[in-house]
Design goal:
Order of helices and strands: HHHHHEEHHHEEEEEEHHEHEHEEEHHEEE
Largest sheet: 4 strands, antiparallel
Low-confidence stretches: none
Helix content: 25-40%
Number of strands: 16
């Protein structure tokens, strides 16, 4: 990896020399990389050199995430939709549902193009004869949301086993490995955390109030084995209707346990939370003449859930400006949509921040991101634009409204700030420099990519609080 450390990412807003950019845009990544080498030998500011090194990393990794030619993409779809043809792919292109880049003079589609399209395209789902009967997961979610609204809150106690392991082909006896596994922090909606067991080694456990909480385990391994941590945590999600008029002050018991907002919660944070000309124009159009903080935040939420379609993404580390990408292309996954909400709120002077970890229900567990915003009446409240957008697509307006100011109790919250440093610093750049949901692993010689490690989050038990 050419990027020396996470701090170089702050140079992402810098524009590249035209020579590099032109080769990249026409899909000639080899010549773009050669041009980058030449520019690194020139007398240019160190910040621009850092930006070029990042671009070289992009140029090396992007082709891996866009493996399918048009012909291969058509064949991929035909496995489930036999009559799929080039005209279908052209339609998906025009509707912005099939992401691609130019590579060696030809379109190449993203590795998750099939999954992306089949989530949202009703025509192809029907032609594939997919069953749209509600899944166990959706039924489970609907039941807990009903519980929240009827009882005023819903609580659960989870026991989890999380692990990370180096793949055998990268392992050798005597290797020194250091793992950073995420842990739930003691901020709302999490109310209680207990570490039950963990791997042996040199262990550092962050305090419960850490903004990016991890357990760091370092050990010399003679045989390959996973690093693991087992923990239990309690979640309480209180229901608040933020669509009522006029807004009422919350009782103290319903307020979230979060630090009071600071100046940083309304400022830019390079490289992604930045107030670009386009985002400032969009924010102003959404805000209009409205002065009420809650009403402005609601308009931003309405826009994102009403116009942005959920889409699996390439790695965040390969996107130069995540919120701008979302606003320009009207697509993005949970974290991309959350960052757009945060950025637009901050442009409008509304304190907003990041929260993420795992979405774990009795059916499955996986990484998830969402946002928080602050008003004097309600304090910090959660917003989940991606879940709200899913409700919109399903025609469920009450559920869409619920995720403005509320989240379900299926959340393990490890991160309460975006791009926050680990307390035990990594020697090499993080695989995900912005977030930590599944863990990071490095040796004393190098860092490891996603392709070289295996991670797992296993639900042991869940009980009603």
């Amino acid at each position: 990896m050419n990027v020396r450390n996470d701090y170089e990412l702050e140079t992402l807003p810098l524009e590249l020399p035209d020579e590099i950019e032109k080769y990249k845009m026409c899909g000639d990544f080899k010549r773009a990389s050669e041009a980058a080498d030449r520019w690194l030998q020139r007398s240019i500011p160190e910040a621009l050199k850092q930006r070029i090194r990042i671009e070289q990393d992009f140029l090396a990794k992007l082709p891996q995430q866009y493996p399918y030619t048009p012909e291969e993409s058509i064949h991929l779809f035909q496995k489930e939709v036999p009559d799929f043809d080039a005209s279908d792919l052209e339609r998906l292109d025009q509707e912005g549902l099939a992401e691609w880049i130019f590579l060696d003079g030809k379109k190449h589609y993203i590795n998750n193009v099939f999954e992306n399209v089949m989530r949202v395209d009703a025509d192809l789902r029907a032609r594939a004869h997919l069953d749209d009967t509600p899944s166990k997961e959706s039924i489970c979610l609907k039941e807990v949301l009903k519980e929240m609204q009827e009882n005023g809150e819903a609580g659960r106690v989870f026991k989890m086993h999380a692990s990370i392991k180096l793949k055998d082909e990268a392992f050798y006896p005597g290797i020194t490995l250091k793992a950073h596994l995420p842990l739930p922090a003691l901020y709302s909606p999490v109310e209680k955390v207990q570490i039950l067991s963990h791997s042996e080694g040199n262990v550092t456990i962050d305090p419960e109030e850490a903004l990016c909480r991890t357990i760091c385990i370092e050990a010399v391994l003679q045989e390959n084995r996973p690093f693991f941590v087992e923990y239990e945590y309690t979640v309480r999600s209180a229901y608040v209707d933020l669509w009522q008029e006029p807004a009422a002050f919350l009782p103290e018991a319903a307020r979230w346990n979060m630090p009071e907002p600071t100046k940083a919660d309304v400022e830019e944070q390079m490289p992604h939370i930045r107030f670009t000309p386009y985002l400032k124009v969009l924010a102003q159009e959404l805000k209009g003449e409205e002065t009420d903080t809650l009403a402005v935040a609601r308009r931003i939420y309405d826009y994102i859930t009403g116009h942005v379609n959920y889409s699996y993404m390439r790695a965040y580390a390969l996107i130069p400006d995540i919120p701008q990408y979302c606003a320009r292309n009207l697509r993005g996954d949970c974290g991309v949509q959350a960052l757009l909400f945060i950025t637009l709120c901050r442009i409008c002077g509304i304190p907003a921040r990041w929260q993420s970890g795992l979405y774990t229900n009795p059916v499955r567990s996986g990484p998830h991101d969402w946002a928080l915003f602050y008003t004097k009446e309600y304090g910090w409240r959660p917003v989940d634009p991606s879940f709200g957008g899913s409700a919109r697509r399903a025609g469920d307006e009450p559920r869409r409204r619920l995720y403005f100011g509320n989240i379900d109790p299926f959340r393990m919250t490890a991160n309460h700030a975006f791009q926050h440093a680990f307390s035990v610093k990594k020697s090499f750049m993080r695989t995900d420099p912005y977030d930590n949901q599944c863990g990071e692993l490095e040796s004393d010689r190098c860092g490891f990519t996603d392709n070289e490690i295996e991670t797992a989050q296993e639900l042991i038990s869940v009980t009603i609080r």
